[in-house]
Design brief:
By secondary structure, this protein is of the alpha/beta class. The chain has a single domain (61-248), classed as 3-Layer(aba) Sandwich (Rossmann fold). It has 7 helices and 10 strands. The chain has an 8-stranded mixed beta sheet with strand order 5-4-3-6-7-8-9-10. Strands 1-2 form a two-stranded antiparallel sheet. Helix 2 runs antiparallel to helix 3 (35-43).
């Protein structure tokens, strides 16, 4: 690693380790209690996941543009969603995890420290390539990248213990439910349109689905197809909703 790369990872001024610590203190004040998540977010240099011109704002609790109409989620959202994944099965930890929406690669990097295996899907090729480079710079291993429509998931490597979706479909994609392990697999995602969204945690127990609303949300939409012009396949998504009986436990 060159000295310039080392300096960029360490950060100076508004991107320094001290600034990162203030971010962690702010997350704790907002109710994030998962120590492992906090430790990981304190160690991952969030400022390398945006253009340098925006790096002075990256440790504030704001979302920032990363190009192609996409954003880097604010730090609270990353911590909240990751904690929701981990809270469901703390004794076994995160095993095989699927991320929908690689984006900048920041959430990917956080999950890579916590999951045994990580698979991540992105529909925009240039974003995926930048995320690969950043993860390589951080010397993260065990991440597999896939360029595809997130609605499909990545069935070849399922089932997954946990799935995190960083974009909002109007309803839960059936393929993602099918790709959860049937003995307590958990999916965390926003649901809704651009006027109203909710962050939900969906759990699968055999053919039964429990859906819990945990917060309000505001994400970019989960768009079909990919930016290179591939179309959504016309044979439909694998799996159907009929076998599942949904029980909602709405908690705003």
């Amino acid at each position: 690693m060159s000295s310039s790369e080392s300096t960029r990872l360490t950060g100076v001024g508004m991107t320094s380790e001290r600034t990162r610590r203030r971010m962690i203190e702010r997350l704790q004040s907002r109710g994030i209690e998962d120590e492992e998540v906090l430790q990981v977010m304190a160690s991952v240099p969030r400022h390398i996941f945006v253009d340098e011109a925006l790096s002075h704002r990256v440790y504030d609790d704001v979302s920032l543009p990363i190009g192609y109409g996409q954003t880097l989620s604010n730090s609270y959202t990353v911590a909240r969603m990751t904690s929701l994944l981990r809270a469901y099965a703390p004794e076994r930890g995160l095993g095989r995890v699927l991320e929908i929406g690689t984006g900048s690669g920041y959430q990917t990097s956080v999950l890579a420290h916590l999951a045994r295996e990580l698979y991540t899907v992105e529909r925009i090729g240039p974003l995926q390539e930048k995320a690969r480079v950043r993860c390589r710079l951080l010397r993260l291993t065990g991440i597999r990248f896939h360029l595809s429509d997130g609605h499909w998931g990545w069935p070849e490597h399922g089932p997954y213990d946990a799935i995190l979706c960083a974009a909002a479909p109007e309803q839960v994609p059936p393929a993602l439910l099918e790709q959860l392990v049937p003995d307590g697999g958990v999916l965390v995602l926003p649901i809704g349109d651009q006027s109203q969204q909710q962050l939900v945690r969906v759990s699968r127990f055999g053919d039964e689905i429990e859906q819990e609303v945990v917060d309000e949300a505001l994400f970019v939409p989960l768009v079909a197809g990919n930016a290179e012009g591939a179309q959504t396949r016309d044979d439909g998504l694998p799996g159907v909703m009929e076998p599942f009986q949904q029980r909602r436990k709405d908690r705003l």
